[in-house]
Amino acid sequence: MDQFPKIVLDKECLLLSIVGASIGNVGLFPGKTKCFLGGAICVLKFKEGVNIPYIYEYLSSCYGQRLIRSKIKGAGQATITIEDIRNFSIPFPSVEKQERIATLLGRFGSLTSDLSDGIPAEQAAQQKRYEYYRDLLLTFDRKAV
């Protein structure tokens, strides 16, 4: 039995939304598990000597997003063609610089994500502290105070 969709991802690559409201969204697929891909997504694979997380960071940046938006066509349903993507002009510093840039931005992204994830936990802890002290302060049983 054929599986739908027929595009199978099993290696690190980039995913780029090429149709509709989500056009220009970029995703980094780590390639650690196998998955199937639906339509309206372009799979970007690269030759040796290219740091894929670097390209992800570049395409996610304001420069990359400006590049993507400049290639959008269509009055009704916005699209980007595969040919336009192949002709993207992306700066490629040395592989070492690509790795340093991707590592630095990845760390910063992780810290930002950790901070954002921690905010709800901090809010919940703050609410518990507030309730504890509120209840303590409003308890008029002098033995508890």
Textual characterization of the structure:
It is a single chain. The chain is of the alpha+beta class and 145 residues long. It has two domains: 1-92, Adenine-n6-DNA-methyltransferase TaqI, Chain A, domain 2; 93-140. The chain is 46% helix and 13% strand. It is built from four helices and five strands. It has helices spanning 52-60, 62-70, 82-86, 95-137; strands at 7-9, 13-17, 26-29, 35-37, 41-44. A three-stranded antiparallel β-sheet has the order 3-2-5, covered by helices on one side. A two-stranded antiparallel sheet has the order 1-4. Helix 1 packs across helix 4 (95-137). The longest helix has 43 residues, at 95-137. The mean pLDDT is 82.
The largest β sheet comes out as:
3 strands, antiparallel
Q: List the uncertain runs.
A: none
**Architecture of the largest domain, CATH level 2?**
Alpha-Beta Complex
Give the termini separation.
72 Å
Number of helices: 4
CATH topology of the largest domain: Adenine-n6-DNA-methyltransferase TaqI, Chain A, domain 2
Envelope shape: elongated
Helix content: 40-55%
CATH superfamily of the largest domain: DNA methylase specificity domains
The largest sheet has its strands arranged as: 3-2-5
